[in-house]
Design brief:
Strand content: 15-25%
Helix content: 25-40%
Shape: globular
CATH superfamily of the largest domain: Alpha/Beta hydrolase fold, catalytic domain
Structural class: alpha/beta
Strand order of the largest sheet: 1-2-4-3-5-6-7-8
Oligomer: single chain
Number of helices: 10
Number of strands: 8
Largest sheet: 8 strands, mixed
Number of domains: 2
CATH topology of the largest domain: Rossmann fold
Order of helices and strands: EEEEHEHEHHHHHHHEHE
């Protein structure tokens, strides 16, 4: 049954740090090779963690969401992100290719079915994957809901969130000449796809810093500092922008909501922070209304704890 309002008595602590017992690289196409790792209980219930961005890559902190005694924890870096190669590559990089990669990884690891866990863009990909392969999913945990609709992109990149973070918005805005400010996503795409590397890096830093500055309810220097890491910024900004320019490669704006009937039988928890600026509450609320059978949990804040933003 769907819960109502704020969930008051929920354990928001994370599990202890652990190391992988297995790491590897899986060649998924002539161009792309993805990094994966396994940790926790090798004989436990498989769970796959789908990171955010797209382009954010995974982090060791992502393992801490899961009880290592119960779960076989599987993380992987999506095409062009993290340790996957080639770095920041946009060629053959679409939602549907990522779904194929998840299936190739599942087969490679000899997993018959698994729990799917994703936040932010990871929630988008979790829904898209589950709607494509509902028979492979034992359950869904979705946090910080992002449905990749135009109104969500416009909210964050075309001036809506600027009303809350004007100080962080101005450097993002000011990189673009006034004549090109009709669509910031397109203006940044032009620069992130430039043949000049410094133009790419300048745009990538500005794009990433804007998102990292808004990722916490209170300022977080560690997250904001990721905007100074050129390697991270290039993959994060280029891949994210590439997906947004192409509308997630979905055939319609409401594709994920329109296909919920395929997965409504799957046990699902939706976790949303009311004051999440990157993934505003309206998206989780729309998903909740379309899927009242899912367990909906709202928190006063952004997600569950500051550490949860790692690998946004």
């Amino acid at each position: 049954m769907a819960s109502k309002g704020v969930s008051p008595e929920v354990n928001t602590s994370l599990y202890a740090d652990i190391e992988p017992y297995n790491t590897g690289f899986l060649k998924v196409s002539d161009i792309h090779t993805v990094y994966y790792e396994q940790s926790g209980n090798p004989d436990g219930h498989p769970v796959i963690f789908l990171h955010g961005g797209p382009g954010g890559g995974t982090s060791s902190k992502n393992r801490k969401f899961f009880d290592p005694q119960f779960y076989r924890i599987i993380l992987f870096d999506q095409r062009g992100a993290g340790k996957s190669t080639p770095h920041a590559c946009l060629e053959e990089n679409t939602t549907w290719k990522l779904i194929e990669d998840i299936e190739k990884l599942r087969t490679h690891l000899q997993v018959s079915e698994w729990l799917v866990f994703g936040g932010s863009w990871g929630s988008t990909l979790s829904l898209a994957y589950s709607e494509s392969h509902p028979d492979k999913v034992t359950g869904l945990v979705l946090r910080g809901i992002f449905l990749l609709r135009k109104k969500e992109i416009d909210w964050f990149y075309e001036g809506g969130a600027a009303a809350i973070y004007p100080d962080a918005w101005e450097p993002f805005r000011d990189l673009i000449p006034e004549s090109e400010r009709g669509c910031f996503v397109d203006a940044y795409h032009k620069r992130l796809d430039s043949s000049d590397k410094e133009t790419q890096y300048a745009a990538a830093r500005a794009w990433t810093k804007w998102e990292m500055m808004t990722a916490h309810l209170l300022p977080n220097e560690a997250t904001a500092g990721r905007g100074d890491d050129d390697k991270f910024c290039l993959a994060f900004a280029r891949i994210e922008n590439h997906y947004f320019v192409n509308k997630g490669f979905f055939p319609s704006d409401s594709y994920l909501l329109d296909n919920l009937e395929k997965i409504k039988h799957i046990n699902t928890v939706i976790v949303q922070g009311r004051y999440d600026v990157c993934c505003p509450m309206m998206s989780a609320w729309d998903l909740h209304k379309a899927w009242p059978e899912a367990d909906f949990r709202e928190f006063v804040g952004i997600v569950l704890s500051a550490e949860n933003i790692e690998g946004i």
